[in-house]
Amino acid sequence: MTDPSPPTKDRLLEAAEHLFASRGFDEVSIRELAAAAGVNIAAVNYHFQGKENLFHEVCARRFSAQRDRTLQALEALQKESNPPPTLAMVIRTLVNEYLEGTLAADGGPGFLMAVSRELHEPEACDRGAMFKNMIQPVFSSFSSALQNVAPQLDPDQMTWIIASIVGQIHHFIMRWVKKEAMDPQNETYGIMLRIFPVLGEPLPVYIEQVTDHITRFTTAAITGMNREESA
Fold first, then answer.
1. Residue 38 DSSP label
2. In terms of residue numbers, what domain contains 158?
């Protein structure tokens, strides 16, 4: 006996994520969404009340999975007592979970590109809700974990450090995404790999090396800041 087809709402979410990732919000019509999902056009309005809300739910579904994965990893780390977490372990956990959840997840890189484009279109992305429901919980959990292992950091320092870590993560994500979107026969592709050879490695190796770099770089920076302030 074959499995029944997924519910209409799930099929629309899957089709929408793929289409939005590959072409962007404005370039996809409701008719195309319905056709890709194999459903009636009216189903889009019935389940989501329009294309904008469908995009919001696609964002929420993807980012909820990333948020929950990261929060669980940070929570598990903070429960460790033998050995107790270190600064490097806390940073490594956030970086690795973020990279794995974005680059290694099915469709993750393409979806990230789509969301990056749409963040500049307020009618297509509820940025306030995304920050409150997706970003703020991870920020709070990571801040708490950092405070536990580096209590000397004040709130202002914490904000700068987290912004720096997230900026590094996004930089290396976009390097990989852009490389993957290029034709290997393109001259620029070869130049990129000569300048930054790790882009030519398999994805697991890339994630491992980027995680190591960001962890070591940030840990050393925080340690150096502490020395300066205590001198």
1. T
2. 55-225
Per-residue model confidence as pLDDT tens digits over 61-73: 777 888 888 899 9
Angstrom distances, CA of residue 189 to CA of 21, 178, 179: 22, 9, 7
Tally of domains in the chain: 1
**pLDDT tens column, 161-216:** 999 999 999 899 989 988 988 899 999 999 999 999 999 999 999 999 999 999 99
Is pLDDT above 90 for 106? no
**Residues in CB range of 20: below 8 A, 6 or more apart:** 28, 55, 58, 111, 114, 118
CA 135 from centroid of its chain's CA atoms? 10
DSSP state of 97: H
Residue 152's Cβ-count burial label (10 Å; 0-12, 13-18, 19+) is: exposed
Question: Where residue 96 sits, what CATH number does that domain have?
Answer: 1.10.357
